[in-house]
Every structure is written in structure tokens, then in C-alpha cells.
Amino acid sequence: MFSIIAQRLRQKKRTISFPAAAPTLPDRFRGLPELDPGICATCAVSCPPPCILACPAKAMFEENGAMRLDMGRCTFCGSCENACPHGAVRFTQGYSLSARHRDDLILGPGLLPRMEALDTRMRKLFGRSLKLRQVSAGGCNACEADANVLTTVVFDLSRFGIDFVASPRHADGLYITGPVPENMREGLMLTLEALPLPRIIIAVGACAISGGLFADLDTSAKGALPHLEPDLFIPGCPPHPVTALDGMLRLLGRI
Amino acid sequence: MIRALEMKPGTPVPQAEIPALDQEEFGEAMLALAAQDCRIAALFAAPHPLADPAGRLRIWAVMADDAAGTVWVLRSRAIKGQFHSLTSLLPQLHLFEREIAEEWGVLPEGHPWLKPVRFPPPVPGRASVFGPKNEAVGHMDFFRATGSQAHEVAVGPVHAGVIEPGHFRFQCHGEDVLHLEISLGYQHRGVERALPGFPGPRTLALMETLAGDTTMGHGLAYCRAMESLSGTTPCPEAEILRLVMLELERLANHTGDLGALAGDVGFLPTLSFCGRLRGDFLNLSALVCGSRFGRGMVRPGGVGFGLDRERTALLRERLQATLADVEGAIQVLWDSGTSMRRFHDTGVLSREDATALGLVGPAARASGLERDVRHDFPRGWYEHLRFPIPTRDEGDVFARATVRHLEIRQSVNLILNALSALDPDLASDPARLAPRTAASPPLLARDALTVSLEEGWRGEICHVCLTGPDGSIGRYKVVDPSFHNWFGLALALRKGQISDFPLCNKSFNLSYCGHDL
Ligand code: SF4
Ligand code: SF4
User: B34, B30, B14, B11: which is closest to B22 by C-alpha?
Assistant: First the structure.
């Protein structure tokens, strides 16, 4: 008993003060990408630019003579940054990446992610208590692991009234990870049906948003969108726990 | 004289040098190898020619000889419609033969337990060997216990926690579990079928996400396969950094699992301490490469990120501080009598069963089997380090937890040891560390075969790459340690209780997506 208390003191208080204070991120963290408007405009018309060739996820593309980076597909691997001979792609420390609409994840020179909170009624319902049922549908266990991390003392998700619950009957929303391959479609839909209305759907990670790396594979795993209408998209591969927490708090209008 | 080719993992061989045997000879050679303590590392089929999916099938086998540090490779001559199952003589092949049957529509004649593995989408023109009953995921003939007192409990695919999906079917008598059958495939993304062709940026990304908690393990196995086939040798600094990252991955997972084991018996202090500490190890990976899971770290020919003097010092300091906290967190668990009563004698897997099933990793070591790829088939910087393999004999949850604890200490030592040999000036030179960019893939030897073995935190990862006449990847076989070990979990639960399941499951903590691919 006393040794446990002594150990508890030794292990110290570890909960971070985010969102009151900015989080500490590793200096090599690859967050919000930035594309240089001037340089990319000239490069976009060369065929094909080195960043596109280096991208594992088909997240970089050219549209009407301008470069676009789709955070809904991006794995944040940084290959495009390395491949660009002009230093026009840069990953910043920006961790606030989430959006309410799929299209808002597509960045370009000067195009930043846009995020808004739920409407007043939904905020009133869920703003102070949001119970989520997590469903992994083909997730590689990295998105899942970092969802679990949110419940540790470091992030202490429940201090915001947000919890992962066991039964979909007890849940206000789904927290979906993975590209939703054929074999998990029914499991996902049955879980969704067991949720009472109204409910919130959150698509987490490149896989759940678009199918990510697996979008062209023959199990037609294209993420949550073909089947559901997510209310929130949290990009990353996997999203940093701070990114996920930030997205959920913004959704609830708490940041 | 065994008709198989003995080779070192990482050395490419021309496919033509691998003996092609008829069915009888193939079976004899496999049994002869097993008789001299070799175990299965990979068994798979590939068409001939590789690029023709309708070509005649051949079966390829890789048997690992832990004592000699070599692997034996053999293949069958073309088979048609069926092949001789060896499972009843060599149970460790059971799932591999089922996999071949499912993937290629050929019947393993005499297989005692022929059922689907992962329910892939049907391939046009290839008939299934399973009946129409077995088409949708989870639909198969489960083993059933009958009798007035017998009952069945079905769990999943969606489980109570934040965890990947899979289905568990318990046959029970009262509270006692007579048998547990595990039916997976829900995570099947079809990765292996997307790998043939010339390796590109996506190939590496798919490897890093085969099992996301084993990014370094699978990423490294792939990069070594590419290096072997293209005759590339990474610089020593890159090898040291790879060791550091592979061990950090082990540290994070072992620590998290010890915490979760404590949580499964309701001992919350260790659960909450280890939850934080696991994240601290992940943050050390992010200190090196910006990603908590090591994404982008390893690449063919080297590594993507270096370590300068300050970063090395910071890594060393934080690693030691984290280890000290982990020791404290685990000590209170060992001191908790009620927790230990639940750990001891729960989920026992005998040495005989572990051997027969070809178990790998900490689960095998906890049943007394001394096997560890880092020790038996050392590559990279492991070749310079000597260390014992921690084992236990009990084969229960306590043994699996203890082995993990010992490995935590050992991993920290390995990292510190390797870092002491690191020259910070060379280790921060990007051109030296990663001579090749993602956009310039290596040229691979033609018509060759190579085998990669790595000790991931769950155990042996085996990748086998067969190249075609144009030097592209013709067939790429991935064996995650979970593929060997899932049946070990099923056996460990026999004669246990359903309430033991979470604890047993966590003590193995196998990968669903690594199995389902
Ligand atoms: S960081 Fe994103 S956009 Fe850039 S190469 Fe990687 S996946 Fe593609
Ligand atoms: S988004 Fe990335 S990390 Fe998340 S499940 Fe998919 S592959 Fe894994």
C-alpha cells in the first residue's frame, strides 16, 4: 500500500495542460503542410513534379495549374518535402488540422484548413459529455493505439467529458479508424445502427477519411465516406493525439 | 542429404538453384528438416511464370535452422488442383496450408482442419475450395461441443475496447473453456496482392502499415530484402539507428502491454503509469524521426533521419529516466499478491505445444523455447552485440509478462550499447544515411529469391521476395509473427475460464491486421 503511494509520488503528475497551454511537440514533428504559392505555380505545369512522384499516397496533385495537397490522403511522411528541389513544400508544427468537410482538407498555396463547431443544439447535447464508440475497420493499429493514448493520464480525455465506451448503445458517436475494407463493412454498419440518434461520426486518419494507402486495393477500402457522413475529419497517419484532441474540442466549440 | 538449399537470410539466390521436388520428395525434405529442429518460417504458393496468375502453381517453403543461423529453401514442382497436406505430421504448417488453399483454390489433401483464413474477395476464374457456406467473413463451420451442459459464447468482430476486430468462439462447459476458435479476416486489406511490380514509394508505406505497431519491424524486413536483392549495404551509423528504433518499438509495446495486463486484473496503478510511459517511448521515436511510430525512418539503403550529438545525449538521458520509471511501475505490480495470483498458472502453453505450433517471439520464449532472430540470425548492428535470450519455463501469463519485462531491460542496454559506438558527425550526415531517395528505387537481381528475418516485438517477421525476369517483384510473401502465434492463444485458453480471456489475450497481444494483411 505505502509502496504504491510512494510510487505514485515518484511517477508525478503527468497530465498536459493543453488546451490552456500550447502542447510540446517534437521538433521533427510533421504538422500542417505549407506550399509556396510562387514556386509551386511554375512547377505544377512541369510534368510530373518530383513531389508527386515521391508521394506514396497520391495526396499531391495538380489542379488548374496549381499544386494541391490532400490532407485526407496524406501520411505526413515528408517525402514531398525532401523531393522538392526548391524547398517549396514545408511541414510546420501546426497540429490543428481537422475539418468538418472533406473538401476543406485539400490544401494549396494560401489554402488553409477550415474548421467550425457543431451547431448550438448539438453543442448543447454533447458539448459537456460525449461518449464515443471506437470502431477499427482495417486500421493498422497505430490510429487505434493513439486513440488509446488519449485515455492515459497524459491527455486524460475524460476531463473534457469525452470517453470511449464499450457498447454502441451507450455512445453518442463513432470514432472510426481504418480504410473500411469489404470484410468490416457490415460490422461497422451494424455498430452504427446500434447508436441512438442524434449521433456524431468522426473519421480518424488518412485511411478512414479516404482509404489512404489502401484506396486502390482490391478490397475496395475507400474509408468511411462512401457509407457514412462524417461530422469531423481528423487527418494524419496516425494523427498525433494532440491533433485528435484538438479536433474534437473544436467540434464541441471548446477551443 | 536433404534436398533443399541452405542459405543465409539476406543473401539472394537464383531461383534456379533451389531444388524443385515432386510432392513425395517435398514432404520428405520438410519432415527431415523438422527432425533436425528446423521450424517453418514461410510456406506459400506462387504461379510460374510469376507474372501469370493462371500459371501452374509451385509451393515454396522456408525452414529456419536457429542453431545454424541459416534457412533452408525448397519448392515443389507444379501442382494441379491439390497438394499433399503435411499438417497432421507437422502441425506448424496448419495455417499456411489453409492460406494457400484459400488464396489459390487448391486443396491440401488430408488437411485435418481446413477452413478459411481471411475471406478475401473472390478471384475471377479461380474456384474456392470451401463451400458456398464459407463465403462471407466469419461464416464457417465452427468446432462445436455438444451436450446438455455445453454452451457457446461468441465475441466480436467489434470488441468492447479500442482494439482491432476479430471473432472469438468459445465452447464452454459451465465456466470452463473446452476450446476457443479464432476466426479472423475482418482486417483484410489485400496488401500482399498489391506488392508485385517495381518497388516504389507506396511499397514502403504499405510495409510500414502492415501492422502499424510494428512499423520498424516490417519496414526493416522489407528494406533488407531490397538491399539484399540490389547489393546495397547501409552504413554502420544507419544500422545503429535502425537498432535504436527497432528496440524503441519493442520498449513502447512491451511497456504498454505490461500496463494493460495490470489493468486486466484490476491493478490500476501500473496501468496508468505504463500508459504514460509507453507514450514516452513513442515520443523518443518521434524525437528521432518526427513520428511516434517510426514512420519515414527506415528506407532502402539506410535511414531517413540522423542523430547529432545533442539529440543523442537527449535520447540517452530520456531513455534512462523512462526505464527507471518503468522499473518502478512494474515493481509495484510484481509486489501485488492478488495480481500475481491471477498471473500464475493462467493461460499455460506447454513447451511441447509451443514447439509443435512453431511459436515465435516472447510467447515462445515464455514456454521455454530459446529463439530470437536478433540472436540466431543477427543482421546489421546486432552482429556486433552479444546478449543472452531471456526465457521462462512456465508458459503462463506470468512467464509472458516476465519475459517482456526482461526484454525491456535488455532493449535499453542494447540501445545504450549501440549508441556508444555512434559517431555523431557521421550519424548526422543525410547523404551518408540515406543514399537513395524514395523516387529512385533500387535495381533488383532478376529471377532471384531472398529471405528477410527480423525480430519484431511480437517475434519473427519473415519476408520472402521472388523477382521476375525483369527485376520486378513477382511475389512478395509476408509472415507476421501473429500468423504463427494465434493458435497458441487458442490452446492457452483450454481448461481456462472465459474470464481469463482478456488477460491471456493481452499476454500474447497478437496483430489482427498483421495476420489479415
Ligand atoms: S507528406 Fe503527404 S503529400 Fe507529401 S509525399 Fe508524404 S503522403 Fe504525399
Ligand atoms: S491512417 Fe495510417 S496510421 Fe491510421 S490506420 Fe491508416 S495506415 Fe494506420
Answer: B30
In chain B, CATH 3.30.460.80 sits at 5-117
Selecting from A11, A28, A164 the residue whose C-beta is nearest the C-beta of B328 gives A11
Q: Could you give the CA distance from residue A94 to residue B302 in angstroms, rounded to a whole number?
A: 28
**CB nearest A77 (choices: B162, B164, B295):** B295
Q: Is A116 within 8 Å of chain B by CB? A: no
Q: Which homologous superfamily is B192-515 in? A: Cytochrome-c3 Hydrogenase, chain B (1.10.645.10)
B307: cell is 542523430
pLDDT at B257 over 90: yes
B5-117: CATH, from 3.30.470.30, 3.40.50.10210, 3.30.460.80, 3.90.1150.180: 3.30.460.80
For an interface test with B, the pick among A133, A141, A149 (most B C-beta atoms closer than 10 Å) comes out as: A141
Per-residue model confidence as pLDDT tens digits over B85-122: 999 999 999 999 999 999 998 999 999 999 999 999 88
Q: In order of start, what are the domains of chain A with their CATH numbers?
A: 120-251 (3.40.50.12280)
Whether B132 and chain A come into contact, CB under 8 Å, resolves to no
Cell (9 digits) for A74: 496524406
* C-alpha pair distances (Å), A235 with each of A72, A173, A177, B97, B291: 6, 18, 11, 39, 14
Burial B18-39 (b: 16+ CB within 10 A, else e): bebbebeebbebbebbbeeebb
Q: Is B132 helix (H, G, I), strand (E, B) or coil?
A: helix
What is the grid cell recorded at B58?
509451385
Q: What residues have CB less than 8 Å from B35, skipping those under 6 apart?
A: none
CA A75–ligand 1 middle distance (angstroms): 6
Which three cell numbers, joined as nine digits, stand for A73?
490522403
Please report the pLDDT score of residue A220 as a whole number: 79
Q: How far is the centre of ligand 1, averaged over its atoms, from the C-alpha of B441 (Å)?
A: 17
Ligand with minimal distance to B200 CA? 1
CA atoms within 13 A on the CB side of A194: 18
Is the CB of residue B347 less than 8 Å from the CB of residue B397? yes
Residue B469 has pLDDT above 60, yes or no: yes
3-state secondary structure of B47: strand
Asked if A136's CB is within 8 angstroms of B269's CB, the reply is: no
Residue type at B12?
P
> What are the grid coordinates assigned to B358, written together?
512453431
Q: Beta-carbon neighbour count of residue B511 at 10 Å?
A: 24
Query: How confident is the prediction for chain B on average, in pLDDT?
Result: 93
Ligand 1 center to residue A52 CA distance, Å? 8
Partner A contacted by B266 (CB < 8 A): no
Inform me whether the pLDDT recorded for A151 exceeds 70. yes
Report residue B240 CA to chain centroid gap. 22
Ligand found nearest the CA of A84: 1
Which range has the worst mean pLDDT, B114-128, B175-189, B324-338, B347-361? Answer: B114-128
pLDDT attached to residue B348: 96
Mean pLDDT of chain A: 91
A75 pocket-lining for ligand 1 (C-beta < 6 Å): yes
How many Cβ atoms from other residues are within 10 Å of residue A229's Cβ? 9
pTM of the entire structure? Answer: 0.95
Residues within a 6 A CB radius of ligand 2? A 139-140, 142-143, 177-178, 205-207, 212-213, 237-238; B 209, 212
Helical packing angle, B309-334 and B268-289, nearest 10°: 170
Residue bearing the CA closest to ligand 1, atom 6: A77
How far apart are the C-alpha atoms of B421 and B243, rounded to whole Å? 12
What is d(CA B26, CA B15) in angstroms, rounded to the nearest whole number? 16
C-alpha A39: how far from its chain's center? 28
Distance CA B422, CA B415 (A): 11
What separation in Å is there between the alpha carbon of A185 and the centre of ligand 2? 17
